[in-house]
Amino acid sequence: MSQNGTILAVRDLRKYFAVRGGLFHTVQAWVKAVDGVSFEVQRGEILGIVGESGCGKSTTARLILRLIEPDAGEVRFEGGDVLAASPDEVKAFRRQVQMVFQDPYSSLNPRMNIEDAVAFNVRVHGASRAEARAKAWNVLNKVGLRAEQFGRRYPHELSGGQRQRVNIARALVLDPKLVLLDEPVSSLDKSVQAQVLNLLQTLKTDLGLTYVFISHDLHVIEYLSDRVLVMYLGQVVEIGSAEEVSAEPLHPYTQALWASAPSMNPDERIERPPLTGDPPNPIDPPSGCRFRTRCPHAMDICARATPPLLPVGSSGRQVACYLFTPSETEDLAHREYRPPAG
Amino acid sequence: MVETTLDATTPDLLEGPAGKPMSYWQLVWWRLRQDKVTLAAAGVILLIVLSAVLAPYIAPYDPFQGSIRKRLAYIGTPGHFLGTDEQGRDMLTRLLYGGRMSLVAGVTPVFIALLAGSSLGILAGFLGGRVNMLIMRIMDIFYAFPSVLLAIAISGALGAGLGNTIIALSIVFTPPITRMAESVTTQVRAWEFMEAARASGAGTLAIIRHHMIANVLAPIFVYATTLVSVSVILASGLSFLGLGVSPPNAEWGLMLNTLRQSIYVNTWVPALPGVMIFLTSMAFNLLSDGLRDAMDVRL
């Protein structure tokens, strides 16, 4: 894909959360939630972000939208610098980049009917009441909730799947170009998940959208994504096309992740050792490669320096592991960003 | 366009008149009107308030005019429908006038505490961090004393009188309302819909207006109505102890105190102010229950 097809570029994004405590709310420690994350999203693709809970997937999405202010890094949307934007520019940016939240229960105001909840987003950008309502009805119908019937309902009267449709409607009502989906189906039943995933795919094709799809469910990621980004403890360990990554995971963490996913075929046994133990405490991550404490291939060099994310092969695959990069890269600048080859 | 359109199989659970578009507050009002008990409680409160306001016009006698000859007349005595007190003053008249003081002393402190407590609590919850710690720790100091004791201590220090009773009770009720407001605000702030509203590009004021107010104020308001009944009782209690309204003014708690010595002479007349306190307190309790049900969209 060509460079001008890039809709969103994230470079070396960092967010350290202060852990406060004690009598005077002093900073006790820092959690490196997102620590030098870089990736690009191409126009029209679905980029899946996968990783264990707590690895910084959701934080990354919130940092992109500036719902949380990043500490360092760069976010460029269609070339414009998001982090340097004025409040008005941020408002315009948020109109084009929308987010679907994970929890269908707490993401809707219990005291607002769904028509108003969807129309609110339009009203925020200066539309009249009637115009906002018309748009809300239109998009509610698009997500499969008949507006005449459901518009006046309150969230508690809807099922989880229906609520998630409202969430999707709310994100789409402003005609965004990019939608960040933060575990949109994780809290739904399998059958409802399929419905919502199909709906998302249909909407993407019909409206020409680009998705960043965050999930911990590998099946969902494989089913939907064009490219996959694997995160571990606030860092990107591997990026590649969905087919390549699932067919031949390179990074030991990706291998373990895919090996631990239950197979649909009962004859297919898990041969590679699945992950054991919990991720290390992000307050005090291991030196060098953060995965080395759980890695079956850990070497001396892994403890000394963080492996940079470097291209492997020619298909735009990137891996951050010394098994695949020559050891002299140790001297390279700390996790220097390199655009993918091709 | 999407094949997964949902059918009309879901029953209509919205407990509003079918087909009529309603805002949240309209729905609350509509639900209140369906609730017989709450309506009755509201009716009782309205009656008590009206009779207190209109006391000078509807009371048959002068509340301060006593008569040595007519002391402690029984209930049903001709001319004195509810009897007379220990100084021969008409009970009906004094109960009507007493309602004015008791209601003022009961409702005003809660209203003041509602304003002070909810602003402090919402501020603490919204800003968090050090501001929160400062406000909430100060409130904790008040929690060190039982509320009745605190009210007695403050009125005792300030001296008797209606104004001081109101000040004392306002101070007593501010910490619980602050605590309530702070916890509700913190809760609402953590809900994802607040973040979703920010993600839509909405400014802080629009978010507070459309997403916070109803979610925060409804529970605080309901809690404050439950405090009114406590406040009526506390205010009467202070007058009973001689720390509230001073004689010869009519106030239910004070009337209970002065009539207490006559309970062996005339059993039922001294009970009347207590009945009024009970009725008022009960009515406010039932009303707050009804409000809570009506405001909870999840019921």
Describe the protein in words:
In chain A, α4 packs across α6 and α6 (160-172) packs parallel to α7 (190-207). Chain A has one domain (3-108, 177-331): P-loop containing nucleotide triphosphate hydrolases (Rossmann fold, 3-Layer(aba) Sandwich). Chain A is built from eleven helices and twelve strands. Chain A has helices at residues 57-64, 87-96, 114-124, 129-142, 147-150, 160-172, 190-207, 218-224, 242-247, 252-260, 300-304, and strands at 6-21, 26-42, 46-50, 72-77, 80-81, 97-100, 178-182, 210-215, 227-232, 235-241, 310-311, 318-319. Chain B is mainly α and 299 residues long. Chain B has one domain: MetI-like fold. Helices cover 68% and strands 0% of the residues of chain B. In chain B, α2 crosses α4, α4 packs antiparallel against α9 (204-240) and α5 packs across α7. Chain B is elongated, with a radius of gyration of 24 Å. The two termini of chain B are 34 Å apart. Mean pLDDT of chain B is 82; it is low at 1-15. Chain A binds chain B through residues 25, 62, 65, 67, 90-92, 94-95, 98-99, 101-103, 106-113, 117, 120-121, 124-125, 142-146, 149-150, 152-154, 156-157, 162, 167, 170, 174, 195, 198-199, 202-203, 206, and chain B through 1-2, 4-6, 8, 10, 13-14, 16, 21-22, 24, 129-130, 133, 191-193, 195-203, 206, 210-211, 214-215, 218, 297-298.
